[in-house]
Amino acid sequence: MSAGAAARAAAARAAAERNEEEEMTRYTPKDIAENWEFKILRSATGAFRDPDVLRTALDAEQRAGWTLVEKFDDARVRLKRSASARAGDASLNFDPYRTWVGMKLSVYAMLIVFVVAGVAAAAGFVAYIVAARPR
Fold it and tell me: Which residues fall within 8 angstroms of residue 75, CB to CB, at 6 or more apart?
């Protein structure tokens, strides 16, 4: 797969995920009138497949007043909280509006690039050593 095809595939997947996030749970007029805030918490590594990781993340979010609305998949959960919960934000030791848990997607992507480059360099080095060896 070419880099362009991979980029198009990634863009298509991101668009499908955004569409899913908009369509799965509709906000009712009551939700808006009662002054709820919503956010999607993401994991670049799909860490929410592990129930312990999910529970740890939700426990931290609960300290800021966020509660689970739905789990999309192993990488995304939707949360909500009353806007009045903002009053306690200053006492938190994390950003209550964070949208990522663990490694951010850009860091994860760079890690993959470095690993692939490292493997390619190692393979090239091994091929050089094998080719340079006397016969």
Answer: 42, 43, 44, 45, 46, 47, 48
Tokens of 23: 């369509």
Residues 32, 38 contacting (CB under 8 angstroms)? no
CA atoms within 13 A on the CB side of 96: 21
* Domain locations in the chain as residue ranges: 3-102, 104-135
- The CA distance from 90 to 24, in Å, is 32
Cα dihedral value 31, 34, 35, 40, nearest 10:
-30
Q: pTM (2 decimals)?
A: 0.66
Handedness of CA 63, 69, 71, 75 (dihedral sign): negative
When computed from its CA atoms, the radius of gyration of the chain, rounded to whole angstroms, is 21
Residue with the two structure tokens 């739905």: 70
- Per-residue tokens: 60: 């931290």
2 Cα distance to chain centroid: 24
pLDDT at 15 over 70: yes
- 3-class state of residue 101 by DSSP: coil
pLDDT on residue 109: 62
